[in-house]
Amino acid sequence: MPSATEVNVPQFIDTYITEVLNSEDQEAIRISFTELIATLKPTVETDIRDITTVQYTALLDTHLLVKGDIDEDRLANPEALQPTKNEFLNHLKYLTITAYVTAEEIGENVLMYDPVPTAYYCGDLQEISGGKSSSL
Predict the structure, then answer these.
(1) What is the dihedral of CA 66, 72, 76, 80, to 10 degrees?
(2) pLDDT mean across residues, the chain
(3) φ and ψ at 119, to 5 degrees?
């Protein structure tokens, strides 16, 4: 299965932010990224390229909450307009997954792809699709 970088997910997200979002939303994303980087780096002088996988994992374990978890940052400041780290990371996760599953390579070669769905199929879905999910 191709990686997200192989199907240009980062470029998709950059283009989406630049061409779809308004300037206020773009600024909110810049601020959120700045806050995440500041949280991630142990000191201001630390180069972002020196951050380890362990540090990234710790950030995600702390701030990427799952359904049912309580966002303490939002509870502490419910009126804030800026997204919390949890909200921002979940939005970034959503953008990444959306970009990946809608990439042409994934849609045509990984998922079940029928460019002109004209036939109706009867039978076991797993057998018909080869166990693949349908492409959009």
Answers:
(1) -30
(2) 87
(3) -110, 150
